[in-house]
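Appendix B, record 7
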Amino acid sequence: MTISPEFPATPPATAVSFRTVDLRGKGLTLAGLRAAVPRAQHQTVADAEQKVLDIIGDVRRRGYAALTDYAQRFDGVDQAHPRVPAEELARALAELDPAVRKALEESISRARRFADSQRPRNIDVELGDGALVSQNWVPVARVGLYVPGGLAVYPSSVIMNVVPALAAGVASIALASPPQKDFGGLPHPTILAAAALLGIGEVYAIGGAQAIAAFAYGVDATEAGPALEPVDVVTGPGNIFVATAKRLVKGVVGIDSEAGTTEIAILADSTAQPALVAADLISQAEHDPKAASVLITDSEDLAAAVRTQLTSQAAATKHSERVREALSGPQSGVVLVEDLEQGIAACDAYAAEHLEIMTADAAAVAARIRNAGAIFVGDYSPVSLGDYCAGSNHVLPTSGTAAFSSGLNVTTFLRAIQVINYTREALQEVSGHIVSLSGAEDLPAHGEAVTARFGGRA
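Structure tokens (predicted):
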């Protein structure tokens, strides 16, 4: 017997505006499905791009002076140097709520176990006598990890960024998070405590696109403090300005993805519990007024029951106004589908950052999904679990990019270096083929570089 969870009774509330997209009876192509599913109507990249280009150029020209100006302008903080003193990191950890510390330690432990298992093995392939080709996985030397500020505090993002970098063997890790006026111009103390707990001593109070610019190009030392050395890879989520900055510095540094505002999709059928579906949609709407919460279902009855639950639960939750705005936006809503097959197709077209499966035989359905940042199977694997204590990583691709990119993992911080080691005899065995192919490509010097080793003969 399934027992529906009980939620506190609340006074009558205005119904949440949660729009419907009806795909039933429509034989849509993949392109049609992508156009039909709810999407956020964010500020366009073109709008943000020039502003971000200006910030990047300013940080490159003026260094810490520019960062100081942006701290004042965007964060209301007077800042001489953004490096967080070691004693502040130690203090934040010492003053951390013991219950929060215990929770962070458990999250770190689970994330480490998963990350340590992700490192790919080196391989050696012998293609003939004396013909050896290897692939070795080597960590990047230095990474810059960005932890956002905004409407919430994200010590969990410290864990999600740092743990896979450590598991990859990265030797130098720097972390940046926006300065907070309420905390003397430092990042939130829980962010600092999480960094200290993981042994990260290089932490900067820098936010937004300017943090990405500082990581990518470095900042020279001044009388106020030491240099910020450039990194090889930048990771971490952020708003459209952070995402745009990451796009613009890609090529100067590697990036994980252009992660934007959070999103959840739930594929559910008539067996799903409406109260749980609504609770999970609200859990992501809580992040941001632009957060996306999407229900994909073939059950009109479920959709109606979820709407009722959204109204009552949204009225009772702490960030009710934020939640209601997110649920009412064009990025959120119910997608009605003909059947499970069309539901799976809609999920793959949407390519959600977080996808929950609440159907009969949920594990089998989950195995058929091709596009998602992370898949949460059944009633007892909510997105909240992945946010904190599943052991998985919550830095995931958004806005449909899960169709071609992955969530943050150990390989984000590794490079595959191929090593070719042939003997004279092994090279001679294929020398004729090299000469033939170099001729076919009208690059004869390629072949000559080989025949030179054998007296000019192939």
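Remarks on this record: Residues 1-11 have pLDDT under 50 and may be disordered. The CA atoms of residues 272 and 358 lie 6 Å apart.
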